[in-house]
């Protein structure tokens, strides 16, 4: 809570610039025929979603989802009691909603386009195909004793089969726990044990960026220490010659023998749908639990409005299903809406930096959803190569996962979208299930760097250090949500007390996001980053994102990461790691210039203590910078770096240590 107060004070230092940012008008390509048109229409619907909340959600829950039995109550329970429930009494099946119900009208239309690691290795699955494949794996799971309420661990590459397994679990009422296939065996082991999974589904190997990932080998090491696991089911992605033990089963013959239809289990609205583990600022990863009815309604409605989804679109979210983005916006949201959703197995840089542009051109993609980190890594290359691709199919460009700096936003808008696409900077979390703050295409005037306005039914609030709500505009604080929304997680697996303390303990009656935010003069929300990443320098609090944004505005900075470091007199100093653009030459003059850039953008108290140029940053494979590693390096605690196995490129650590030693 101390963070919140300082964050509020900090507002007075940094507000003006953001308040001055002009809006970019809604985009013509999106405007005609948009699902919701104009800010007035948004405001009217938003107001009614709060004022007549039950009516709003009753109407939309019925519009987006088919119920086997209609619900008796829209929303019940409170944050304070930790018993929030949505659509109680309702019965439905998520897989039925995502697959079967579309078959009469679009059984032969493409549900999933899969683009493999190699360029152009494309497989398409119609809704009928998906029903058949999902049924087969559902029947195999059942044959291994998986029943309603059982937890199934999934550790797979981005094969289409990963989506089939998720849907198969939903079909039979099992609870999937997808673990991103970049996690180490220890991380996998902990997650399997925490959820007491009885079956693990994996693949022999994965392929990503031309490299082979020995998944089954990792599973073997994990499962050796997982007493609850009875069977490991293995898809053959590469047909590698790997070891099979008595618990292991190749899926190919089992699927061939399985019946291609499996009935859908009728589920209660509040039955568990999936667990997804995510890191907190302290402690071990927490398995957030999402339930059936509210999650599906929320994934579908947000997919529809945020991406302005229209029939005939080819929608592509290039995230991994190992993260919440893949759950809500590759699988559940799009398929519930009957969309064509693309799954991408590769990386933005394989075989070269034009992969995304080629992907967009070949599939005529209409909505493209990626992360700021990918955008920044592509900005480093000249735009000439991109100009050779036809990107005119695009209508909406989305970003997620971290604050997008205005420079990256501009580049995405100008060069990828050719100033004709709407940018949707979607703010949300594993915990929120779906977007909670985002522009709507053709509707919300945009401001580069702002996630703009809350989604329908989401009542945001900014809190100060005393736990009070900050009213008015041009203010900063900690971002909270004031009332339940359907997509929110319901608990942490096996630890409801931790759920309550983490999310409802700091500000009683409010959901605490853990992020700081600025609300500008127009009520637009600017996420400033996690409050746990806030630095305290001589009593001044600084968002690392603010300093990073200042650095990145320099023409020779491609990417940056700022962390606090121990400082004798100031408490904390500021350490900036910068990745220079390809055409920059590292020199002491340039580093001095960058220091000045931060001073002049934010204030002299924000002058960096260290600026360290590096060829790369330690990132997880999902693109998140591991700040813990950076903090340890600059604090010279390199013997306690912790698990770096999930880094996309662990070799960067040694370079950083060397560079930091030079700087200190
Ligand atoms: C950050 C990812 C700024 C934020 C969907 C949040 C963002 C955390 C944005 C959740 C955004 C996500 N602008 N920050 N558009 N989107 N974040 O659980 O700090 O992996 O708390 O969910 O990412 O990360 P998670």
Automatic annotation (TrEMBL):
Residue span, AMP-binding enzyme C-terminal domain: 546-624
GO BP of this protein: acetyl-CoA biosynthetic process from acetate
Reaction equations catalysed: acetate + ATP + CoA = acetyl-CoA + AMP + diphosphate
Pfam family, one: AMP-binding_C
One GO molecular-function entry: AMP binding
Superkingdom of origin: Eukaryota
Enzyme Commission numbers on file: 6.2.1.1
Residue ranges of domain Acetyl-coenzyme A synthetase N-terminal in the record: 42-98
Ranges where the AMP-dependent synthetase/ligase domain occurs: 101-485
InterPro entries registered for this protein in UniProt: Ac_CoA_lig, ACAS_N, AMP-bd_C, AMP-bd_C_sf, AMP-binding_CS, AMP-dep_synth/lig_dom, ANL_N_sf
Top EC category: ligase
Gene3D superfamilies the record matches: 3.30.300.30, N-terminal domain of ligase-like
Keywords linked to the UniProt accession: ATP-binding, Ligase, Nucleotide-binding
Similarity comment text for this entry: Belongs to the ATP-dependent AMP-binding enzyme family.
Protein name: Acetyl-coenzyme A synthetase
Species, as recorded: Cafeteria roenbergensis
């Amino acid at each position: 809570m101390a963070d919140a107060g300082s964050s509020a004070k900090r507002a007075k230092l940094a507000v003006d610039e953001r308040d001055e940012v002009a809006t970019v008008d809604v985009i013509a390509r999106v405007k005609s025929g948009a699902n919701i048109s104009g800010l007035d229409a948004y405001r009217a619907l938003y107001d009614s979603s709060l004022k007549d909340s039950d009516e709003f959600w009753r109407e939309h829950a019925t519009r987006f989802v088919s119920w086997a039995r209609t619900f008796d109550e829209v929303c019940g329970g409170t944050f304070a009691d930790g018993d929030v429930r949505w659509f109680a009494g309702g019965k439905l099946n998520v897989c039925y909603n995502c697959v079967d119900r579309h078959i009469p009208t679009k059984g032969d239309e493409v549900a999933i386009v899969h683009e493999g690691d190699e360029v152009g290795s494309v497989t398409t699955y119609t809704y009928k195909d998906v029903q058949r494949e999902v049924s087969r794996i559902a029947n195999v799971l059942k044959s291994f004793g998986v029943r309603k309420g059982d937890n199934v661990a999934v550790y797979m590459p981005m094969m289409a089969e990963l989506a089939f397994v998720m849907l198969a679990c939903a079909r039979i009422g099992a609870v999937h726990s997808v673990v991103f296939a970049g996690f180490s065996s220890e991380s996998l082991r902990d997650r399997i044990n925490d959820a007491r999974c009885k079956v693990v589904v994996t693949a022999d190997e994965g392929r990503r960026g031309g490299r082979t990932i020995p998944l089954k080998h990792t599973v073997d090491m994990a499962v050796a220490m997982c007493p609850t696991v009875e069977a490991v089911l293995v898809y053959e992605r590469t047909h590698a010659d790997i070891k099979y033990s008595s618990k292991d089963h190749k899926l190919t013959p089992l699927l061939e023998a399985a019946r291609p239809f499996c009935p859908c289990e009728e589920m209660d609205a509040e039955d568990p749908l999936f667990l997804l583990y995510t890191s907190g600022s302290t402690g071990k990863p927490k398995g957030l639990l999402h339930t059936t009815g509210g999650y599906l309604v929320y994934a579908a409605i947000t997919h529809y409005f945020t991406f302005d989804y229209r029939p005939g679109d080819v929608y592509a979210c290039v995230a991994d299903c190992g993260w919440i983005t893949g759950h809500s916006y590759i699988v559940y949201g799009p398929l519930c809406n009957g969309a064509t959703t693309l799954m991408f197995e590769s990386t933005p840089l394989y075989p070269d930096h034009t992969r995304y542009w080629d992907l967009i051109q070949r599939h005529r993609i209409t909505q493209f959803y990626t992360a700021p980190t990918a955008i920044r890594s592509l900005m480093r290359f000249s735009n000439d190569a991109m100009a050779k691709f036809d990107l005119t199919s695009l209508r909406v460009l989305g970003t997620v996962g971290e604050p997008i700096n205005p420079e990256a936003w501009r580049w995405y808008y100008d060069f990828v979208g050719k100033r004709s696409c709407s940018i949707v900077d979607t703010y949300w979390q594993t915990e929120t299930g779906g977007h909670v703050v985002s522009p709507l295409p053709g509707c919300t005037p945009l401001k580069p760097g702002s996630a703009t306005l809350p989604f329908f039914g989401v009542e945001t609030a900014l809190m100060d250090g005393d736990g009070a709500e900050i009213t008015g505009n041009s203010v900063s604080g900690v971002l909270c949500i004031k009332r339940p929304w359907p997509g929110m997680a319901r608990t942490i697996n096996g630890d409801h007390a931790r759920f309550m303390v983490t999310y409802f303990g700091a500000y009683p009656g409010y959901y605490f996001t853990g992020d700081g935010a600025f609300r500008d003069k127009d009520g637009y929300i600017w996420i400033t980053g996690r409050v746990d990443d806030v630095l305290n320098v001589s009593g001044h609090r600084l968002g690392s994102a603010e300093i990073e944004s200042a650095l990145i505005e320099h023409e020779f900075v491609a990417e940056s990461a700022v962390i606090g470091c121990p400082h004798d007199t100031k408490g904390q100093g500021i350490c900036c790691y910068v990745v220079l653009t390809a055409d920059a030459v590292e020199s002491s003059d340039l580093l001095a210039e960058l220091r000045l850039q931060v001073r002049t953008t934010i204030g002299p108290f924000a002058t960096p203590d260290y600026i360290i140029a590096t060829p790369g940053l330690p990132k997880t494979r999902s693109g998140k910078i591991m700040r813990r590693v950076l903090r340890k390096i600059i604090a010279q605690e390199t013997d306690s770096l912790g698990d770096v196995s999930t880094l996309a490129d662990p070799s960067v650590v040694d370079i950083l240590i060397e560079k930091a030693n030079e700087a200190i």
